[in-house]
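Hi support team,

I submitted a single chain yesterday and got back a structure, but I'm not sure I'm reading the token output correctly. Could someone confirm the output below corresponds to the sequence I sent? I've pasted both exactly as they appear in my results page.

Thanks,
R.
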Amino acid sequence: MAMGKKSSEQQELWVATQDLPKSPGHPFYEKLNRILSEAGFDRMVEELCEPYYAEGGRRSIPPGVYFRMLLIGYFEGIGSQRGIAWRCHDSFSLKSFLGFGVTDDSPDHSSLTYIRKRLPLEVHHRVFLFVLEIAEKKKLLKGKTVAVDATTLEANAAMKSIILKETGEDWKEYLTRLVQEEEGIEEPTDEDLRRFDKKRKDKKVSNKEWESKTDRDSRVMKMKDGRTHLAYKAEHAVDMESDLVVAAEVFHADEGDPSTLLPTVIQAQVNMTLAGSDAEIKDAVADKGYHKAETLADLESFGLRSYIPEKQTKRRKWTDKPECYQEAYRANRRRVKGNRGKALQRKRSELPERSFAHVCETGGARRTWLRGLEKINKRYLIQVAARNLGLILRRLYGVGTPRSLQGEGYSLISSSLGRLGTLIRRVWAITSSFRPNVDRLAPAL
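Hi R., thanks for writing in. Yes, this is the structure output for that exact sequence:
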């Protein structure tokens, strides 16, 4: 077979439509489209978004296409809007999923920006609830016990962009002033600033004194890998029976875990009620970072049982605290030390962490490409909704992501080869049992 070479001649100017390559479509996205169509997704979002569009003028892309492109961002592991637009433009199967033909152009990344600005956070939250409604209709949503955990999201802003709130100085101007005051250098060079900044001891950056000039909602935070970066805090409430995320909130990174636990659990109950579920949350499970006597008492006042391990602290004093704080503290301790509390903690260490791995790591949401708490909440809600959709598809069809089909094909081939090998061994065993008789009769023949 001869080696093929790239043709350098001019290609034909006109190509017939029937001669264009056609994609059979990706089986995963076909099943996803089937579920969305059965639930009336496009009709719902068009009615929901209609008040935010003008009656006349040029037609924009349908809202269903906008939300589908955000779903593609999760399933393909793409965080940026430009990356999503490029991927959709490059794939015939994704164009088919969006409802475009092979000759149509997929939407540009700027279209995603315009539509996101046009649609409020309530619309994105309604799409998140729509996915929970699908889970409720498929009898997957339980919701009696929820596990709550949080992680950090890297903000789309650099530490160099922080400014001092009182004076408005950036980091370099701040260092220059310190060098002039403490070392008497009138015009310090960059090397002088680096040397001074390296040897000085008090280098803490407080969120009370500093803020980002480009993203004022972000906060200075120590990340999981030890780096100091501007960040946000994402918190999940996960149904411990179905593994569905029933609430996903993004907060300022400096908000403590005990202060956000109760709002997240209440939001989870509201979401399940709006999704048509009759389930009531009874138990809230979290790690020891959420342990606080006031938080435990607040949960008790809402009729919620807490399963939160204690921190290693000194002997507590209750004389200056209400009596309900101590009662909630003792009751939580008894529950945590019981067999059910230990079992829930083992399961808690698995489910929320898995949801963060899906949404933030393989889903591409660990770094935010948007700025502002509201914008990030819009994108993050659809990211978590896509994760729930993948879980529903896995329960119904055994496949939760388009990439998992590769593993399914490999396992199918492996199992087929295994069955073939077993069949060959059985045939060989049967023929071997007849061989002594054949050898004995051979001389007579």
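A quick pointer for reading it: Residues 1-10, 409-413 have pLDDT under 50 and may be disordered. Let us know if anything else looks off.

Best,
Support desk
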